[in-house]
């Protein structure tokens, strides 16, 4: 979607709305969006938002994209201010800020300022900026007369606000007297510090909404826990810069958000800094940074539009989320049998990708959202993860109900806690899952998800043994596969043979039976497949680190796969007992970080040479294998402390080679 120019957006350059370009469908949508913007503003400024800020912003952004000049967008605050408080008029109207949500938009704003200032003598904007934290609270104007606090008025619609003087007078950071004479209007934000919220209002989750509520209580209760921080003073002509303005506010005894003079590059670095941790460490909530042209003279030259200065912007923290409509709710059966609800939505562009499918996590989430076909929902995509439905923004349809049968095989589903599952072992989704697990555990990198899907769909693979009976032509005959790939894939799985016992057990993909558990069993004396298969639940349960649940899963899982395992063994795919001899005999190894080869393959390498793989760094560990032996990670540090040797994968191979040769020479 095209980003609308910040300055001209409201100035009538774009003529979408009402013009010939607006088709009926758009007009309807525009009216609908505008109404919702107003409704949500009214709720929000009254302290009772129904939807999240991200959802609200998504609606407002969509309206701006469809109708940049819409009058609703030019307004500040809410026009329908219903209040029991006395209304009061601001002598100098209170405005808002235009926003940018990424570096490019910020740079564009600077460029635009330069363009507008082309004919004026001024220092480069990008070198003369001022930046302050953008407090997420309630705007307030506080008036002093001859050094005495006389009035405090909320922003309201910018012109008329509520006179909540009695409450503001009790808030922290609002001096009753200041040493400045004359008439003074200072502007700031009412916030509730997180520490105060925790102490005085346990259970409350939104400091902003709480602060809004407290500010407007008639009995004034709780107002003393709010804080006001200031960032502006109206019309104080002798102050030349934002920096001086903040200094001056502080000298008068007002608290301010953190702020400072800055260049454009520094602002961007600071923004990243805040986004990646500094923001989370604050004792109050901010929703971005405010970036100003430092010189107030230049700000005046730039002027403002719709009560939004051109010489400042809100540099908001991005929330990559958009509103879209639910077309259907699907229930996909996954490889473990778990049924995952997915919302199919009207395609929307999110963080550079078109999104049509969004996860609904599980049946419990579907229920708590109350989501249904036709609803408008907020879809997010954070750090490139799977798109996710955050909330229902506008309820339109009837809520979706979890299915009772599997969409893949039709079997009845079972409920387990928050999840529903297909337990049918011959369900195609589960077969794919098991094959996938096998391939993963043995470390056959050539094999992709798609190939497995194709083989299962073609009925060529139903269980792990089938993998070993595949012919080159079976794979080569599939769509978009050739002989070369086919050969590579088949060679790879055959090269992995024989499988060590822990790898074999892990490859079966039995619930709760990961590599660590398999190793635990082996080191507890269950060194052969036979021993493990005949073990009773009770005897496994007492192995330290196992417990009753895992023991039950193992016994049940092995029994359920009995025939499959028998067929594997009959075909010679038999796990090998760890070599008690071999070049690495009596040595222990542990892997950390990502290697160049899959963990399973490395484990196999160590174990087939008689070594033992440990899951963590302990005193008995001989070798820690990692990409960078000079690493300062906690695992590496610990290993050094124990005198463990730190080596790379290559050094591991050399070690095997050396020890093999040494043994050969001795023998
Ligand atoms: N959830 C909802 O239903 C809903 C509805 C309406 C609005 N909203 C939210 O309200 C916000 C929009 O409101 P807005 O028009 O007041 O704009 P804004 O709050 O995004 O930005 C302008 C305001 O920032 C404040 N501010 C904080 N620190 C500042 C500083 N250092 N310098 C200057 N100003 C500073 C001022 O009060 C100023 O008026 C959005 O975040 C939107 O998501 C939410
Ligand atoms: Zn099924």
TrEMBL record:
Give the reactions, separated by semicolons, that this protein catalyses. NAD(+) + (deoxyribonucleotide)n-3'-hydroxyl + 5'-phospho-(deoxyribonucleotide)m = (deoxyribonucleotide)n+m + AMP + beta-nicotinamide D-nucleotide
The GO biological-process annotations, alphabetized, read as: DNA repair; DNA replication
Give the highest taxon in the source lineage: Bacteria
Which residue range or ranges hold the BRCT domain? 579-660
Q: Where does Zn(2+) bind?
A: 406, 409, 422, 427
The record's EC number reads: 6.5.1.2
Q: Which residues bind NAD(+)?
A: 53-57, 96-97, 155, 189, 316
Q: Which family does it belong to?
A: Belongs to the NAD-dependent DNA ligase family. LigA subfamily.
Identification of the protein by name: DNA ligase
Species per Swiss-Prot/TrEMBL record: Chondromyces crocatus
- Identify the taxonomic lineage of the organism of origin: Bacteria, Pseudomonadati, Myxococcota, Polyangia, Polyangiales
């Amino acid at each position: 979607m095209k980003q609308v120019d910040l300055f001209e957006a409201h100035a009538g350059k774009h003529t979408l709305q009402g013009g010939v370009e607006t088709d009926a469908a758009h007009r309807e949508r525009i009216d609908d969006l505008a109404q919702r913007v107003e409704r949500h503003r009214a709720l929000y400024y009254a302290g009772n938002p129904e939807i999240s800020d991200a959802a609200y912003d998504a609606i407002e952004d969509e309206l701006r994209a469809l109708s940049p000049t819409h009058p609703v967008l030019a307004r500040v605050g809410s026009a329908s201010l219903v209040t029991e408080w006395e209304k009061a008029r601001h002598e100098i109207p209170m405005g808002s800020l235009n926003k940018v949500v990424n570096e490019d938009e910020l740079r564009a704003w600077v460029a635009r300022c330069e363009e507008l200032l082309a004919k004026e003598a001024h220092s480069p904007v990008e070198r003369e900026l001022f930046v302050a934290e953008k407090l997420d609270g309630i705007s307030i104007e506080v008036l002093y007369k001859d050094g005495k606090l006389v009035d405090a008025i909320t922003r309201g619609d910018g012109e008329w606000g509520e006179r909540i003087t009695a409450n503001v007078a009790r808030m922290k950071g609002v001096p009753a007297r200041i040493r400045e004479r004359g008439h003074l209007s200072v502007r700031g934000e009412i916030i509730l510090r997180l520490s105060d919220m925790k102490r005085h209002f346990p259970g409350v989750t939104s400091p902003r909404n709480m602060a809004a509520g407290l500010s407007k209580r008639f009995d004034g209760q709780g107002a003393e826990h709010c804080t006001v921080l200031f960032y502006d003073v109206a019309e104080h002509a002798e102050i030349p810069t934002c920096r001086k303005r903040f200094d001056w506010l502080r000298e008068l005894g007002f608290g301010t958000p953190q702020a400072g003079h800055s260049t454009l590059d520094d602002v961007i670095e600071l923004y990243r800094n805040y986004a990646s941790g500094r923001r989370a460490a604050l004792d109050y909530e901010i929703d971005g940074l405010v970036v100003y042209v430092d010189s107030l003279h230049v700000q005046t030259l730039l002027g403002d539009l719709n009560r939004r200065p051109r010489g400042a912007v809100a540099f908001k923290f991005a929330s990559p989320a958009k509103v879209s409509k639910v077309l259907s709710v699907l229930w996909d059966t996954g490889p473990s049998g778990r049924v995952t609800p997915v919302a199919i939505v009207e395609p929307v562009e999110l963080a550079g990708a078109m999104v049509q499918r969004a996860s609904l996590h599980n049946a419990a989430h579907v229920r708590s959202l109350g989501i249904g076909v036709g609803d408008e929902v907020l879809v997010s995509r954070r750090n490139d993860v799977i798109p996710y439905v955050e909330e229902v923004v506008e309820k339109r349809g009837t809520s979706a109900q979890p299915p009772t049968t599997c969409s893949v095989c039709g079997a009845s589903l079972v409920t387990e806690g928050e999840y529903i599952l297909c337990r049918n072992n011959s369900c195609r989704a589960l077969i794919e899952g098991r094959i996938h697990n096998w391939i993963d555990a043995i470390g056959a990198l050539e094999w992709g998800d798609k190939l497995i899907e194709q083989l299962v769909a073609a009925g060529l693979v139903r269980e792990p043994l089938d993998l070993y009976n595949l012919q080159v032509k079976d794979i080569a005959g599939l769509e978009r596969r050739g002989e070369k790939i086919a050969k590579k894939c088949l060679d790879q799985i055959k090269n992995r043979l024989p499988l060590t016992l822990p790898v074999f057990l892990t490859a079966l993909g039995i619930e709760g039976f990961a590599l660590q558990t398999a190793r635990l069993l082996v080191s507890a004396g269950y060194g052969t497949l036979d021993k493990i298969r005949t073990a009773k639940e009770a005897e496994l349960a007492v192995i330290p680190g196992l417990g009753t649940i895992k023991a039950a899963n193992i016994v049940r899982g092995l029994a359920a796969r009995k025939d499959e395992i028998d067929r594997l063994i009959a075909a010679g795919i038999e796990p090998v007992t760890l070599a008690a001899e071999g070049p690495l005999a009596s040595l222990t190894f542990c892997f950390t970080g990502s290697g160049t080869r899959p963990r399973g393959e490395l484990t196999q390498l160590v174990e087939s040479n008689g070594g033992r793989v440990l899951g963590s760094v302990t005193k008995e560990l001989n070798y820690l294998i990692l990409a960078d032996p000079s690493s300062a990670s906690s695992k590496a540090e610990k290993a050094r402390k124990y005198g463990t040797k730190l080596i790379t994968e290559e050094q591991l191979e050399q070690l095997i080679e050396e020890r093999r040769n040494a043994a050969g020479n001795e023998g």
